[in-house]
Amino acid sequence: MKAQQVRETFLDFFHKKKHKIVKSSSLFPKDDPTLLFTNAGMNQFKNIFLGLEKRTYKRAASVQKCMRVSGKHNDLEQVGKTNKHHTFFEMLGNFSFGDYFKREAIEYAWELITEIYKLDPRRLYITIFKEDDEAFKAWNNGIGISADKIFLFGRKDNYWAMGDTGPCGPCSEIHYDLGTNIEEGDTYKLIEKGSNRFLELWNLVFMQSYQDDNGNVHPLPSQSIDTGMGLERLTTSLQGKLTDYDTDLFSPIIEAICNLSQKEYPVGEDSDISIRIIADHARAVTFMIGDGIMPSNDGRGYVLRRLIRRAFRQGNSIGINEPFLYKLVGVVGDIMKDAYPEVLYLAQYISRVCMSEEKRFSMTLSSGIRTFNQYIREIKKDGKRNIPGEKLFKLYDTYGFPLDLSKELAEERNLDVDEKGFYKELDKQRQKARLAWKGEAKLKAKKVYENLKDLHVKFVGYESHKVTEAKILAIMKKGTIVSEIKEGEEGEAFLNKTPFYAEAGGQVGDSGILKNSYFSALVLNAYYPIPQLIAHEIKAISGKIKTGDYVEAAIDTPRRNNISKNHTVTHLLHASLREILGDHVKQSGSLVSPLRLRFDFTHYASLNSKELKHIESLVNEKIRENIPVQIKTTTLDQGLREGATAIFEEKYGETVRMVTIGEFSKELCGGVHVQRTGEIGLFKILSESSIAAGMRRIEALTGEEALKYVQEMDDDLIEIQKTLNTQRKEILEQISRFKDSLKEKDIECRSLRQKLANIKYQAKEVKTKKVNGIPVLVQKVEGLNNAELRELADSLKQRLGSGVVVLGSSTEEKVFVVAAVTKDLTHRIKANEFIKNIAPVIQGGGGGRPDFAQAGGTKPKKLKEALEKTYDILERMLQ
Predict the structure, then answer these.
(1) Beta bridge partners of 73
(2) Closest CA relative to residue 59, chosen from 22, 32, 110
(3) Which residues pair with residue 778 across a beta bridge?
(4) pLDDT digits (tens, 9 = 90+) for 371-399
(5) Helix 703-724 to helix 731-761 angle, to the nearest 10 degrees?
(6) Per-residue model confidence as pLDDT tens digits over 153-209
(7) What is the DSSP annotation of 417-438?
(8) Which of 546, 556, 650, 820 could form a disulfide with 793 if both were Cys (CB 3.0 to 4.6 A apart)?
(9) What pLDDT is recorded for position 84?
(10) CA 796, CA 803: separation in Å to the nearest integer?
């Protein structure tokens, strides 16, 4: 059975069991601030399990893309070394939200595994939580599994918790025996230690309890099911293989790696591990970039960068010494095309991003080798034999050197490495990363709203800008629910119905007023603190309001209209980018405010002026056509079938709004829009820039703001005309003439400064001092820049004939020192070594050749001290 058939069979089975089939969410977990990556099928249903969100269905099934490279679920170091661990994998899962429980979950699992997939029951073993008698009975009495094949484990292995607080419960696992030829021994002990002989196929989690802040466990009023089964492991079992890497999910990738490296696989050597790591990372990198994650120095982007670099280094170890990972993207796309057609569709773009990062790392690696050799020289000079941990970590963090590479290079030179120090520095970095990651703080902030999760709030802002009677359901001040809010106070109000659009999908929240005959307040913003609950940030202006009172709620209509213009134009911009640049362009973020818009999109190169003008013109053409903007509510599946574009970072519900602009644009979007494109008036691009590798950003204006900008530019041009005393069409020509004239004057000034310096510093009164018989000229120079200082030093060196010249010059913020040594003395005094000794005095660094070197620093006041130390430094060097 092929992997795609495994997926289809799973979903078809649960569809027949009346489960809603839900599409995989992105690897980028939109609504869970505690996660770097989606790491389980239940992630997209977390708010349902927590009771913060309701759906129309109570049972669901999915095939979910997952990454396990961070936090407590981190399989990175195991990848390639075992037959079953991966960074990227797919999780097959079925879920019950207060519907069926243990007995049905166990029955479904056994039926699918043994009757549909037809795995041999004799090779299946069960583990359960040791206190879960209900699960034991379901397996033993209900299914008929003998007691000797049901193993009892403790909390560490067979108990699941969402976090320190929240839903929790026992779990039961189904393990598959690959055979005694892998490893012999006691089944219980082999499963306990994680032997390669046994594959943990399916984990059934029984959410039956809730753990509070004090660690006390209470029964859940509504019990739920969360299951997860690794597609790769199940496919291994069904295809009769011994490792995941032998299945059709990996074998074409491994074949391509072998062709690139001219290596055989498997051969029982270290190269096998390298090939498996590359195959794993190729899949992970492809899907991460496909989901809009770009290489960077922190967060998700840093993980991606590490995986690319790790794969590149493994390629080096098997003889591939040039960028190659990008060549595997198409192979991954071809394997996954049935389940994830977008990966094959985006393969060219993903390859270009990957290749760019590989090339960058190739250069970084060369720099790393040079830095490593520099460390070696410093260590040997100090008579030491151990490379410090902090230097090893710098090689790892800055240049992507894994510790084993540093160890290998050190062993070649008969040196040791400080592993303990390296891991100490690594731990420091992890601590910093944890402090920088705001996820936990965001989660705690959410908890204060959990008592309000059952409030029913109706949003009517698409149809109306004002509600005459809105009931105050709750009031909150500084994270505490209160009964009233009065003049001068700030807080949050929750209404039974509201016209205020809550910040979402890149669109800012509405502002406006709440008022009645004895109270008025400004609404500063509207947002979702938890799903489906709209909070109004308010500042009371007069009177007071209590829970249960009624108010008129009205948005700032002119502000909303400007937001609508900017939002609709992002759709026109998106469609224009795709038409002009190519279908690989995907929106990856946006900001829609009343004053301007920002649009982030995937593209591998900067846009030239011709492309920007073409895009701007196409958007304005569609505005002038005054196309009707049609909005209809439909299901997510139907919207996608009709060709609507979905934004990767957004999380869609069961029903969606589809925004259609003629034949030009069709997107799923919950934002506010104009009725016809002509209302936008004008579109003007302000800038286009890079925000990450393969990620671009356009900032733009519409309507009144765009007109104002154009008028300001026109005013500036009029002033320039007056200043240059020329016609508008001749401005550039006049500026060019001025530039040429200034350039001539600059050359003339530079020549005069140089002549004056030569006259002044080559006069007879400029004295040299002898150090061990060698003439040394040391001088502070005024009014010359760094280039002129170098020229003067060279001129003075020639005048000396034999000797050393050291010159210094400073500005308010910087200081420069140059050293020149005549050729006949470079065997005794090296300018580059001298400059390294003097640079720390001016708190800078430098380098150069034996006959000429320079240093720059940040302490101008230290120049005099540095020049005075010249003689002592030279004397030490000559000794």
Answers:
(1) 70
(2) 22
(3) 806
(4) 888 888 888 888 888 999 998 898 888 77
(5) 60
(6) 999 999 988 777 778 899 999 999 999 999 999 999 999 998 989 999 999 999 998
(7) E-HHHHHHHHHHHHHHHHHH--
(8) 820
(9) 83
(10) 10
